Protein 1
Amino acid sequence: MTALTLVRGDITEQSVDAVVNAANSSLLGGGGVDGAIHRRGGPDILAECRALRAGRYGEGLPTGEAVATTAGRLPARWVIHTVGPAHTEDEDRSPLLASCYRSSLRVADELDAHAVAFPAVSAGVYGWPLDEAARIAVDTVRQTPARVAEVRFVLFDPRAYDAFAARID
Ligand code: ADP
């Protein structure tokens, strides 16, 4: 059984086995949590991302998928990069957002990670309404069988924290 926990704070400071990055498909860095992870983790993360782009992910990492790299200087051992869908009213992309959580948990299991920290994927620049983002995150993790012992949602801003707290309680 995977335990779900909730923390208000900065994901780059978490002492967990793996932190999940809300990356973009280029894998070459961006703003928000992605920028913070690369800034704090140092250049080794970007070097592995470039190698992935030169190899298996020549076209970028598809939305909904996940791939691991070193965590560089972060307290964690690995960063699991996943690409959330941008929110749009024209189309229901929630299956892709759920896929981010499932794929990340699968990669975490492959790494034998015990504790994994997730941000609110797609709830920043990608514009997902917080309540929806929290519902999809919590429901998907609860419904996905995994050997991961702890999934820690790390929410940066109070509104995101409240949205996740309302789902977990
Ligand atoms: P996306 O492009 O998938 O929306 P963002 O990085 O813009 O990704 O935002 C995702 C969530 O991560 C937002 O709720 C944002 O507030 C949050 N966030 C930004 N920096 C950090 C951080 N250092 N630790 C945890 N969460 C963060």
Protein 2
Amino acid sequence: MSFVNMQLAPSILKAIAECGYTTPTPIQKQAIPMAMTGRDLIASAQTGTGKTAAFILPALHLLNTQSTANGKGPRILVLTPTRELADQVTQAARKYGKHQRLRSTTILGGMPYREQLKALSQPIDLVVATPGRLNDHLERGRINLSRLELLVLDEADRMLDMGFIEDVEKIAARAPSDRQTLLFSATLDARIEKLARGILNDPEMVLIAGKEVNSDSIEQRLLVADNLVHKNSMLQHLADDKSVTKAIVFSATKRDADGIAGELRSLGHAAAALHGDMNQSARNRTIADMRKGKIKLLVATDVAARGLDVSGISHVINFDMPRFAEDYVHRIGRTGRAGSSGIAISFVSNSEIDCLKRIESYIGRSIPHHIIPGLEPVQPLRKTAEKRKMRGQGGSEGKARRFSSSQPKNYRGDSNRKTGNASAGEKGPARRKDPIVEYRSSGSGQASGRAR
Ligand code: AMP
């Protein structure tokens, strides 16, 4: 099925053609025709599958009909778990809706109220919002949902993870009962079913198998990291490795992406950061440089790397583990594309065990442990997270500087060294009197396998 056969308004088809989309993705092929019938829908689809267009295109099509209800509230409401995703959805709506009249706004938590109140005082077609702030406006009577025809829950599983369930349920309860509801989620489990039972009406199901990792083309490896210093040393080792020809390094925050890229550059590597604080032209330039091979190591955040399609990525390195399992699958899918093979290496510290467990249960297998000779971890990975320690550890790891100028170029496990804490680790090696050469790893290249 092509876009043209989907009965979408000509203005939408024109915008899609301008985006260069020739064929609908699998989720679009299934979800758009179903959504156009007006039925409720549950769709399991990951980020990167084209799911945004799968709900935005039918939403924009709906705006080509006249509203029969009075009032100025939105006809379409999209709820998303994060600000980044809300921004992305709004941008997508504006891109696909550029040839039609579209009055849209984004309502985000943590942002000033003034602009939001102004936007909500005008007649509006589409609101993209995070649930907490939207519910806040609803309770204060600043938004009226009586005109709502379509409610979209994007990444519903994440909204549940982030504790938004009550807000989502309250918002749905204030919308007309004959509205249409589309629920998108990377995972479909009992919680989602419960949410759907309360909010959706006899939904159709669309299941897109997206979570399978292509095990033939992507080799997954896990490197246990004692702390941040250890992670830095392993990253430096991989950056020096000749077989790492083009890599994406994933960091948890934008600041870390800048810090890691800067440090890699100072060590003589062709590295650059890619994150949401960069303007679009800087991002495009960076991606173009990566494609041309001018950049070997791209240090990115999840949001910035979404949809990133650069061929020939030899390695994906998870400097920090993603909090959400679907992000792991999305990250490692940047390599091993179009018939080539790739290696995905994850640095996992004891503070990241919960993430690892979630990922392994999501992908249905455990990730084989590897070591870099000379950079072996001092402490084994715990079986489960130690909650009390974890809080402190996770925090210091998040806030500590990614690279310390006083740290040695390489890292060697040292039983006298304090471990399990990033700042302790940073101090440990710096206090040592040993010459730097002693920290040098003995491996010639790739991390070697070690059965567990
Ligand atoms: P999403 O899963 O919505 O985050 O989309 C991932 C990326 O796929 C975005 O960059 C979209 O611009 C792109 N995309 C969406 N639909 C199509 C399509 N039919 N053909 C090519 N690219 C698409």
Protein 3
Amino acid sequence: MSKILVLNGPNLNLLGTRQPEVYGSTTLAMVEANCIAHGEKLGLSVTCHQSNHEGALVDAIHEARTTHAGIVLNAGAYTHTSIALMDAIASAELPVVEVHLSNIHAREAFRHRSYIAPVALGQIAGFGAQGYLMALDALKVHLSESGAE
Ligand code: DQA
């Protein structure tokens, strides 16, 4: 069974209580449990990790390179700043689906730029916690079509 890493970046540990009008009321624990359950339905083994630290996220991507078949990544604010994360994804040579709970393109101008998007398979933004499950669906189709599983 293909392993998928669901990786969340800074401040996403506060999901559920953090600006619920923007990010919804689903907690990170619920998001992760839903991803694991949805993965089981798709025949994917989902593992989850969250860090508030850029270097720890880079490390997690490097580790996934040899252990996982793909990554669902919500890099939080590092999306808009981190060349290090962009380089880590490019080096990992793994399919990455970028997820945002909010529609970053309908928000402040500084959120419109993503350093993840150019190295990602695609981006899902604006569908709240459902976006993570959509990302798993997209990865499943990609892995099947590319003959990776
Ligand atoms: C976010 C959008 C980012 O702009 C923001 O910094 C976050 C969360 C989202 O999921 O909508 O932390 O990635």
Protein 4
Amino acid sequence: MTECRGISVFGGVAIGKIKVLIKCEQQVKRIRVKDSSLEIERYQGAKKVAIGQLEMLHAKALREVGESGAAIFEVHQMMLEDDDFNEAVENIILSQNVNAEYAVAGAGDNFANIFSAMDDEYMQGRATDVKDISERVISILLGRSDNSDIANEPVIIVAKDLTPSETVQLDKEKVLAFVTEGGSVNSHTAILARTMGIPALVSTDIRIDESLNGKTAVVDGGNGVFYVEPDENIVARMKKKQEENNRKKELLQELKGKETITRSGRKIKLYANIGNIKDLALVMQNDAEGIGLFRSEFIYLERDSFPTEEEQFAIYKTVAETMAGKEIIIRTLDIGADKQCEYFGISPEENPAMGYRAIRICLDRPDIFKVQLRALHRAAAYGNVAVMFPMIISLEEVLAIKKVVKEVREELENEKIPYANPQIGLMIETPAAVAVSKILAKEVDFFSIGTNDLTQYTLAIDRQNSVIDKYYDAHHPAILAMIDFVVKNAHKEGIWVGICGELGADTELTETFVAMGIDELSVSPGQVLAVRNKIRNIS
Ligand code: PEP
Ligand code: MG
């Protein structure tokens, strides 16, 4: 048995088999071969397997996300069958007498460079696809498994690190827990694990290699321990703990359908955070009263080209209809920092968290921003939709946003497209927004405090950097004073204010927030009932 320590991101116990996720970027060695025809055969065989995988992925995506999301797998199949690409691979094998892996990597790089250099934005986007298909074929040639189709049974995912886009693409039904060697507790990957409500550890002292695959393991999320090949005692103890956790969860189930109200009769809106349309099931299961934060950037992260207005409209409309009149707060695109999307073509930055991100990109790129705002306004006709904007630092930004919103409304009106005007809110997640919150409150319908970034920017602690996790203190008096200040300013101007950062779910602070006068708390779906329980016990 091996026992490893990590930092807990979400509690609970998971028992199951390990699946190691290997990063896509693969080291490919150049090996001289005697028999090139054998390498061509290997390539042809791997290509056939890749096409089979893509067919399966296409069918799965059709079921789960519909035709538009599935189309990419058809495009990948076509690319793999493309004569030019195949000739390029075979030519490298024959002319250089090298192994198939090296030839595929070389041809993939060459084609990706050609696409990147093209003027047409659509063709530039295809560079990522060529890389993707060549990585797939290389994986098959190297005998590695396909990450996108994890396993037949639910598994414990072990990886060096996971990006938010990798996490979001995992089949959630098949993930029992996450254990990563790197990663910080405040990263979006950690937040996704919380949304999924599964045990997760980051910064774990584990040596990752593929020999872990298939081994039995236990993740003790609460205590931050990962046991590989645990002995009988550990398994028995953990099973007991799992049962206790389940019992506690069952007790909380009794709070379903009950009001979120203090003993003295103050009602708090208790909403859930989501990143994906599939999270709606968790929202329902946990009886959230609305959605306080839909991180819409995950729609962009899950794909390799810009989602169209129609695609976004379909998603927002489904959320609005499913929530049937309950409030849904959709945050506009918050791309950047740890949420990078290659097809945006943003150059690497020294300090991406303080860089070109979120509303800064949207205000610079009305072509992208307006597509989303149009889709949101159209979806607002189907439910109680509100829109909020991330990373605000000034009144000027808010006025610029309102100008674009006005233009969008006029355009929809002129085009006679049905729409409704959503409520408009701001995320308060920079110290600057806190300081000018009194002025900002005059311009909008509500505030939602993003304590994750507010803590990062106030305490000068990079939320991605696990080395300084110990300084990331969201209970710091500076943060609590800021929340208090924002609540007062919001109420003076007659608007409501909530918290959608992770601190909103911290039951040690629920009473403090209620005393400050907070109107709404938006938490991961799995935390809704525990927070309701806490609020109902406040006198
Ligand atoms: C926050 O910063 O608190 C927040 C809710 O946004 P995100 O975690 O997505 O940056
Ligand atoms: Mg934020």
